[in-house]
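The records we work with from here on pair a chain with its fold. Here is one such record, which you should read through line by line:
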Amino acid sequence: MLQYILKEIAFPKDLAGKKVLVSAGPTREAIDPVRFISNHSTGKMGYAIAENAMLRGAQVTLVSGPCAIDPPPFVKVISVVSAGDMYEAVTENAGDQDIIILTAAVADYRPEKTAEEKIKKKDGDMSIALTRTKDIIGTLGQNRRKDQFLCGFSMETEHMLENSRAKLEKKHLDMIVANNLKVAGAGFGTDTNVITIITPNEAEELPLMRKAEAAEAILDRILKKIQK
């Protein structure tokens, strides 16, 4: 009941009538039935964006990799595991979306082959051949509708602005949200973040804030852009 009341009265419904797709969390690329390649993403930032969009009246689809947190209520959740799963789910659901926000930390590489049985330990070293995964955000950037708003995320450890701007341009994005793992309070697993919101004409650095607040700030900026 409380969640329903919050949904109805806590926020202005400035996203009413909009369809919003959010990707969140990590992916897992199987090595064998026991082991996989993944990353430290917890999905907290993406889940916060999905929840804020829902509270503001949007019809939200959340495509989520394996996460240990509960998804927000009143949101359509599509659970995936691998980068391939994420690619299929996002591209299949992107067509009728008004706003697409890709926060998921999707693996860039996967094992070329997945062993059917557990790989046993042997003497000496072992190497695993990796192959590139499909580029989700690049595919969307190339095939988007003109009236869609496409926002990506960039997690960097150096040259954050330079690398993020390059990604913005290369992937044909309207906005990219950058954060630096080396900044205290930012990055994976924390309840806070330090973000820089980058568009083709500007970069706005925001102070340390809770991820729920960062989610609201990101959607505020997106709304300003689509209302122009």
Q: What stands out?
A: The longest strand covers residues 149-156.
